[in-house]
Amino acid sequence: MRDLPAAFLRRPIAHRGLHDRSRRVIENSRAAVAAAVAGGFGVEIDVQRAACGEAMVFHDDDLPRLTGVAGALRDRTAAELAAIPLIDGDETVPTLAEVLRLVAGRAPLLIEVKDQTRRLGPDVGPLEARVATLLAGYAGPVAVMSFNPRSVGAMAEAAPAVTRGLTSCAFARDDWDAPLARREALADLRDFDAVGASFISHDHTDLGNRAVARVKARGVPVLTWTIRSAAQEAAARRVADNVTFEGYKPVSAD
């Protein structure tokens, strides 16, 4: 287990980059990442696996919301995705390699490895291996996380020197295609030690969860998502050590 770098606790973290669709800066885009770095914030991004195995920076399993194109991201190659414009923006879907070159260690980079099945099961490995390969030559504060502890475990095997954590929440049935017992175990953070996690990033509406209090009492850093106002931030910081935000600009603490 590697401790979360202190930089992740000093700077508020821009959720999917510092995006503003009204200004044609789309979430998880190069422009959003660059804006977060320029603003003195940390950067949170999502990665999904393309059909060719490349790690793409994109949140949704499916393409329509951000591209207007039907279908799943995992069914397209990186080359195909590079030809699909993001709605209301001037870019296409970036690769993780591009984002790593763009950030270049200038800001803390928090990478969420997405579970494309939403089953929180054992179907992991290839995406984590690709992320590990790309991070092998990266210099700068970086950490990976996932809602799926098996993904975090796969990162531990592929890149043991990279800091890793659990993305967590109450795991409501409406959001996840997993059995009740599995969701209860995840909400209780029972896999935290087994996968060598060193932090959590927890839903701000569930910060009263006893499991959060339990790990915080052990000195585990608690990040929280997604904060959308100064009032929410003030409330969240009663528990959380740092916030992942969007829709407003907190004061950078670096």
Structure in words:
It is a single chain. The chain has 254 residues and is of the alpha/beta class. The chain is 28% helix and 17% strand. It contains ten helices and nine strands. It has helices at residues 7-10, 30-38, 64-67, 78-81, 96-103, 126-135, 149-158, 180-187, 210-217, 230-236, and strands at 13-15, 42-49, 55-57, 109-113, 142-146, 163-168, 200-203, 222-227, 242-245. The chain has an eight-stranded parallel barrel with strand order 1-2-4-5-6-7-8-9, surrounded by five helices. Strand 7 (200-203), helix 9 (210-217) and strand 8 (222-227) form a beta-alpha-beta unit. Helix 6 (126-135) crosses helix 7 (149-158). The two termini are 25 Å apart.
Strand order of the largest sheet: 1-2-4-5-6-7-8-9
Q: Write the element-wise H/E pattern from the N-terminal end onward.
A: HEHEEHHHEHEHEHEHEHE
Number of domains: 1
Structural class estimated from helices and strands: alpha/beta
Which architecture per CATH?
Answer: Alpha-Beta Barrel
Which strand-content bin applies to the residues? 15-25%
Reported by name, the CATH topology is: TIM Barrel
The amount of helix comes to 25-40%
The description of the largest β-sheet is:
8 strands, parallel, barrel
Give the CATH H-level superfamily. Answer: Phosphatidylinositol (PI) phosphodiesterase
Shape designation: globular
What's the total number of strands? 9
The DSSP helix count reads 10
Q: Terminal Cα separation, in Å?
A: 25 Å
The overall pLDDT average reads 96
Poorly predicted regions are none
Q: What is the CATH class?
A: Alpha Beta
Please state the CA-atom Rg, rounded to the nearest Å: 17 Å
